[in-house]
Amino acid sequence: KNSEAQIVEEIIAKKNEDTIYINSFTSVFQEESSRLTYVTKENFSDSVLHFRNLHTTGKKDSTLKNFYFNMGGYKGKTIIESNLVEKGSNVETYGATLLANREFLDTDIQIIHGAGNTESKLLMKVVAKDKSHNVFTGNLNIPKSSEKVIATQLSKNLILNKTARAEAIPKLEVFAHDVRCSHGASVGEIREEEMFYLLSRGLTEEEARFLVVEGFLCEILDKLPDSERGSIQTYINEKLFQNGKIY
Q: 136, 130, 129, 66: which is closest to 105 by C-alpha?
């Protein structure tokens, strides 16, 4: 109770001639009025099959800031489930994924408001290039007994090549009446007007595209603890410039 902590979990798997298999499972239980910042960083090569399960439970007036960053892997499935079981509990979930080559990731995030007077926020951003494919499903569940809930869900996807794919599937199961809920999803490419503006200021096409991607992700990066932002930025730079190109 009344404690505060920051936990960083980092999983790294470099390229290997053989396929690497990773299956990680984490459970987080928060007592009353506890405050936790939880950061997961996955840095995988395209020879990794990976599965990720994260389950969290928050009691009265607990606060969780949950960050999830994935930098590829051959094929992967991520399941994040957050349960708000007592009034006053709050969870904010922020995620960013960068995929390249033929990488595939299926992310499923579920937030269950098991009590009234709880609040959740979900923001997921994806950058996909080459022939990669991302699927995101956001599940928001508010049973009939959970009144006065505030919940938002937003998924934004940026495609760097026409051969890349991104799918966003929002799901809301709202049975209570006195709630405030919103959701949104978008999939798009870098706009010609953005490129024209940056190129007219003397930037190369490579520099312009990088700035657009960096601006797209900064909404999440700005929320990170200062101690973690540098390493995440390094991961992003390495991923974007695979083979020397951002395309």
A: 136
